[in-house]
Amino acid sequence: MTDKINAVKGMNDIVAPDSAHWEWLEGQVRALFARYGYRNIRTPIVEPLALFVRGLGEVTDIVEKEMYAFEDRLNGEQLALRPEGTAGVVRAAVEHSLLYDGPKRYYYMGPMFRHERPQRGRYRQFHQIGVEALGLAGPEADAELITMAADLWRELGLQDITLELNTLGQPAERQAHRQALIAYFEQHADQLDEDARRRLYTNPLRILDTKNPAMQALVEAAPKLLDHLGPVSLAHFDTVRRLLDAQGIAYRVNPRLVRGLDYYHHTVFEFVTASLGAQGTVCAGGRYDGLIAELGGKPAPGVGWAMGVERILELLKAQQRLPAVAVPDAYAIVPDAGAWPQVLPALRALRAAGVSVVMHATTADGLGSMKSQFKKADASGARYALIFGAEELAAGEVAVKPLREGVAGTITAQTRLPLAQVAQWADRLRGDAQP
User: Where does it reside (predicted)?
Assistant: First the structure.
């Protein structure tokens, strides 16, 4: 036997019935985004490596350690599998001059890739749903994006999600804070772990994000960015907070929240849960007013967030908020292969009328007995069996048999219905039929 080929570790297949939950979640998200005026954008999975080096920052963990980067064998171009969605959306906005006629609101869905050790909630191929508001400078845009995420949790019925909020100020203020951090940590160099020493002169803000218990007291006493903010930055942050307060959206100001990408400044935020262990961040984002210019566009502001689909689905499952998987309205039982010329047109007419029908078909073992077909009909979850027997077909009819107690639809006992009048009775099979 030929050896079996498995998927790459950390890159997972999504099959039914789980895929139905993915489709349901995507539908819920699309409906919410449409009510907020966001439109879909789809960018390539493969982008120039320079996009992420320049956009995310050369000394970020993603660029240094996690990106799948490679050389195009055709022309030697340096490429990368996208590790996040914002840079690609901004690149598309710049390339196609999407902001020429004013601000834009976009959302995206799709796979991202990071080369790391797979574990619960962290995969090499993972999926994000994200939103980007381009050309909007005011704090009300930050608050609206945060509100949109809070509305999503409410509509999904999710509990135990808390909002953490911070501001990174403007670049000059961040630079002053950076120098203060370097000076402070230099004075305590003997207490820094290897990761902190590596980041000290390249990205000292990330030291504040350390999970090392031995460094917590040191980090807590480090200079605070809030102490370096000027009146404009403080006013922006205060307005965001007031707008959230006005809507009753609870939050905690976390001065250690810095996010891992260089393009953030002003508002940053995370929605976190204690229900998923170490991988507790389910949605994160912030403002990135300098990124559009950094990627070659005319200076324009931007703000956005992304959520991890796998983590949201895991949380929905843990909180028993996933809907039941949809079942077909009917299952077609076909005792004799000679019936296909009558069966197929009838099923086509039913489907055109909005009825979902699974057709029994020939396998390597043949059509199978009526008993085995009924077993398959029951296992499918279908509400009704459609029996295309010789007697029924001779009379131009099909037998309809309910398979469930309290079945949806209006046919409650086995009956025969005319094939020539499918459109007149098809709605009686549908799960949404009204008595």
Answer: Cytoplasm
Pick from 116, 82, 83: nearest CA to 9: 116
As given in the structure block, the two tokens for residue 260 are 């891992």
Within a 10 A sphere around the Cβ of 368, how many other Cβ atoms?
A: 18
Is residue 256 located within the same domain as residue 399? no
Please tell me the predicted confidence (pLDDT) of residue 322.
94
If asked whether residues 36 and 105 sit together in one domain, one would say yes
| Cα–Cα distance for residue pair 312/49, rounded to 1 Å | 29
Beta bridge partners of 40: 107
pTM of the model: 0.88
Q: What is the pLDDT of residue 434?
A: 44
Residues 313 and 335 placed together within one structural domain of the fold? no
Q: How far apart are CA 413 and CA 231, in angstroms?
A: 74
199 annotated as belonging to a binding site for a ligand? no
Mean pLDDT, residues 294-306 taken together: 95
Q: How many CB atoms lie within 10 A of CB 348?
A: 12
Residue that terminates a domain, selected from 268, 286, 318? 318
The answer to the question of whether 263 is labelled as a binding residue is: yes
**Contact between 93 and 297 (Cβ < 8 Å):** yes
CA 375 distance to own-chain centroid:
37
Of 61-75, 224-238, 298-312, 405-419, give the lowest mean pLDDT range. 405-419
Is residue 259 a known part of a binding site? yes
How many beta carbons lie within 10 A of that of residue 380, not counting itself? 16
- To the question of whether residue 396 is assigned a binding role by annotation, the answer is no
Q: Is 11 left (phi over 0), alpha (psi -120 to 50) or beta?
A: beta
Range picked from 36-45, 202-211, 221-230, 286-295 for highest mean pLDDT: 36-45
Strands 104-113 and 39-40: parallel
Lowest mean pLDDT, pick from 195-204, 341-350, 370-379: 195-204
At 435 the pLDDT is 40
Q: How many structural domains are present in the chain?
A: 2
Given a contact cutoff of 8 angstroms between Cβ atoms, the answer to whether 100 and 135 are in contact is: no
Is 84 annotated in a binding site? The answer is yes
Evaluate if residue 362 carries a pLDDT over 90.
Answer: no
Tell me whether residue 241 is annotated as binding: no
Residue 371 CA to residue 388 CA, distance in Å, equals 14
- Residues 239 and 385 both lie in one domain: no
